[in-house]
Design a protein that fits this description.
This protein is mainly alpha-helical and 171 residues long. The chain has a single domain (12-170), classed as Up-down Bundle (Hypothetical Protein Ta1238, Chain: A). 64% of the residues lie in helices and 6% in strands. A hairpin with a 5-residue loop joins β1 (12-14) and β2 (20-22). α1 runs antiparallel to α4, α3 (81-98) packs parallel to α5 and α4 (110-136) packs antiparallel against α5 (140-163).
Length: 171
């Protein structure tokens, strides 16, 4: 399959439904932000502990499914309750390790800073998907997943900082 197709040269791109939409459409804004997140997660994997690398790789696969859901306008939905429960279980596990008592200054280590950038991009993706849910009526699974993912990335960053004795709480 060729990489260069020239089908996007006029500012349109194809969805899974076969429809062509503007590259700046809300669907493409959401998917572009998720794609950006995927790239930054790929970078973060090189800095986090091995256990977290496996988690991030699984998330990257799930992000492809989220993008497919959005590109099909909700007709292809592979990420749902099971994936959200998995994120929630990880959040609870790391919360027990960290035991936060106050706000924190993000980025006390390179690894946690990488995860904090991913968290901020996840929040932006969540805002883009919220538009799809509220204005167009699809993407609810993606919205819930991204909301939990941002929480997970936050607490994983704090777990790294705590383990390295660099967790900086603001009191």
């Amino acid at each position: 399959m060729p990489i260069t197709t020239k089908t996007g040269d006029k500012g349109l791109t194809g969805l899974f439904t076969g429809d062509r939409v503007a590259k700046y459409s809300p669907v493409m804004e959401a998917n572009g932000t998720i794609d950006e997140l995927d790239s930054f997660l790929g970078e973060a994997k090189h800095y986090v502990p091995e256990e977290m690398t496996e988690i991030l790789e699984k998330i990257q696969v799930q992000l492809y499914d989220l993008m497919a859901e959005l590109a099909s306008r909700g007709k292809y939905a592979k990420v749902g309750d099971e994936e959200v429960r998995w994120l929630e279980e990880l959040i609870h596990r790391y919360e027990e390790e960290v035991q936060l008592r106050a706000f924190v200054l993000p980025g006390s280590t390179i690894a946690s800073a990488k995860l904090d950038v991913c968290r901020a991009i996840t929040r932006r993706a969540e805002r883009r998907v919220a538009k799809l849910v509220l204005d167009y009526g699809f993407g609810q699974n993606a919205l819930i997943y991204l909301n939990r993912l941002s929480d997970l990335l936050f607490i994983m960053a704090r777990a790294i900082e705590k383990k390295e004795g660099k967790l900086k709480e603001v009191k």
